[in-house]
Amino acid sequence: MNTHAKRNDAYLRDLLQQAGLRATRQRLGLAELIFGHGERHLTAEGLYADATKAGLRISQTTVYNTLHQFTEAGLLREILADPRRIYFDTNVHPHHHFLDEETGDMEDIPADGVAVSALPTPPPGKTIEGVDVIVRVRRPAPA
Amino acid sequence: MNTHAKRNDAYLRDLLQQAGLRATRQRLGLAELIFGHGERHLTAEGLYADATKAGLRISQTTVYNTLHQFTEAGLLREILADPRRIYFDTNVHPHHHFLDEETGDMEDIPADGVAVSALPTPPPGKTIEGVDVIVRVRRPAPA
DNA sequence: GTGATTGCAAATCTTTTGCACTAAA
DNA sequence: TTTAGTGCAAAAGATTTGCAATCAC
Fold first, then answer.
1. What is the pTM of this model?
2. Which range is least confidently modeled, A60-74, A104-118, A129-143, B83-97?
3. Which of A50, A122, B5, B35 has the fewest CB atoms within 10 Å, counting from its CB?
4. Taking CB atoms and an 8 Å cutoff, what residues of chain B touch A100?
5. Chain segment B100-116, per-residue pLDDT in tens
6. Domains of chain B (ranges, CATH numbers)
7. Which residues of B fall within a CB distance of 8 Å from A102?
């Protein structure tokens, strides 16, 4: 028997239930890809491609819906990085990112790699929701 | 006479010339709005609206073209802040931003408001192009 | 059974592109 | 005159929405 799959399935069902979401075939499949598979920085486009490749029958609409639902549930976090597409991160804890300007690839910055020394005073009447640090990198142009 | 306007015009013509751009009516108009007017955080949409409001006959295409040309010339800088739209900043020096998550408004963080303590080591073969810090703020939800 | 979920198709929004016309130098 | 610039219209790309059929509980 595939004990591992069963246990994983139960885990994912639990995850969904705690998020107040029904355990549909599509959501289980995406959750497996996202949380069971080690994916870290996702775009809707990429996740849809992976889902399709994995044989999951699902629509783009549902991928978008699911990413947003998972984000609302606190299972994912949006990264402000690229004005042309939304990135989601499976790591919802405070941390920061390298963004390759050429390829669009994203990578975590190791926990102690940067530190924001002192939080600035927010504009009056506003409170700080979070801090995003994006370190833009690229392969140096050939001399 | 409008000495001020003349001087300003000459200044803007010079700015364009040094950027290798012809001093067209449209570019002069936009440069006036952007650099003579104190605008700081622009979107194409907003600049187009302001230009139209100011009586400048111009197309959206030219606004997009001009923003990119100014950016290439180092007169503006793109800000990675909102996956849904590109922000440009007239301040091209290293500094960071507050982003109001509800309104989309952007504000500079005073120079000494944040500091990134130590730049992280970039992935092998890559060099750091720049660092963007976005502090997301919002009006706290009523209790 | 009942309300949540899915997914098609169409719409929306922002940005880019092709190309004929116009203007700057 | 020559080349750069403009802008219409259309395309492109990502994301969202309306709504009827389907599914989870």
1. 0.86
2. A104-118
3. B5
4. 123, 126
5. 887 888 888 876 667 77
6. 3-86 (1.10.10.10), 93-137 (no CATH)
7. none
